[in-house]
């Protein structure tokens, strides 16, 4: 009853974090009001019995117990700890997003960040059996995943980044992280952005729904109630 135009204009906070990072446009025709086209006429296949023409074969691609990872581009500001990149990892069963800052994209640094994120999954009793990542990865990284982590490795084809679910996770985490940065104090040092990553990771996982257990959040799936 008190939600009036006058009260909204008087008390509504004019914050930058409300629209910042949450301006992604929706896909076209998701809830379209256009009339659906008429269905195609059904062909009479009685005369084609015993013939094989234009057969279509399908297979089921199971993404359970699968891990996706990728790295962001270089951030505008180097942190006080020397970090310039973020490794983003998404685990499909929990739908959880894990992040780890990196000082560079060199082989040793990427292996360190990968082992850190994988150890966090193991502490949550999550042990993926398959890892999907871009083909821009060193041989040492491939050997680490196959031998030490005992996971099947799948590299997406060159230029086909949409097959890597981590690309969508990077986009969602960036949007969420931008909204957090827009709400910090005006005198907050920009080179401390990596200190906000743990909070950003917790809050984004609280907003995501677990795939294996849809009644709980991704954070609850990985960290418990």
DSSP strand count: 5
Percent in strands = 5-15%
The H/E string reads HEEEHEHEHHH
Helix content: 25-40%
Q: Name the shape in a single word.
A: globular
Describe the secondary-structure layout:
Layout: H1 5-11, E1 66-71, E2 85-91, E3 96-102, H2 107-123, E4 130-133, H3 139-148, E5 152-155, H4 165-181, H5 197-206, H6 218-223
Parallel strand pairs: 1-4, 4-5
Antiparallel strand pairs: 1-2, 2-3
Can you describe this structure?
With 225 residues, the chain is of the alpha/beta class. It is built from 6 helices and 5 strands. It has a 5-stranded mixed sheet with strand order 3-2-1-4-5, sandwiched between helices. Helix 3 links the parallel strand 4 (130-133) and strand 5. It is globular and about 80 Å long.
Q: What descriptors fit this protein?
A:
five-stranded mixed beta sheet; 225 residues; 6 helices; 12% strand; alpha/beta
Q: Would you summarize the structure shown here?
A:
The protein has 225 residues and is α/β, with parallel strands linked by helices. It has 6 helices and 5 strands; from the N terminus they run H-E-E-E-H-E-H-E-H-H-H. It has a 5-stranded mixed β-sheet, with helices on both faces.
């Amino acid at each position: 009853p008190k939600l009036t135009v006058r009260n909204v204009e008087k008390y509504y906070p004019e914050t930058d974090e409300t629209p910042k990072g949450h301006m992604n446009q929706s896909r076209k025709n998701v809830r379209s009001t256009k009339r659906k086209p008429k269905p195609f006429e059904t062909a009479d296949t009685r005369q084609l019995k015993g013939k094989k023409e234009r057969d279509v074969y399908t297979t089921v691609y199971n993404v359970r117990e699968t891990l996706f990872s990728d790295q962001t581009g270089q951030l505008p500001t180097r942190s006080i700890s020397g970090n310039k990149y973020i490794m983003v990892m998404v685990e499909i069963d929990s739908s959880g997003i894990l992040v780890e800052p990196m000082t560079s994209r060199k082989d040793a640094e990427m292996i360190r960040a990968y082992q850190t994120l994988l150890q966090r999954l193991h502490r949550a009793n999550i042990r993926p059996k398959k890892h999907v990542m871009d083909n821009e990865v060193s041989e040492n990284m491939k050997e680490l995943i196959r031998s030490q982590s005992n996971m099947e490795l799948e590299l997406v084809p060159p230029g086909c980044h949409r097959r890597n679910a981590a690309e969508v996770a990077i986009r969602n985490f960036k949007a969420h992280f931008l909204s957090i940065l827009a709400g910090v104090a005006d005198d907050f040092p920009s080179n401390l952005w990596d200190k906000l990553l743990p909070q950003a990771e917790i809050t984004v996982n609280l907003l995501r729904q677990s795939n294996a257990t849809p009644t709980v959040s991704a954070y609850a799936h990985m960290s418990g109630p």
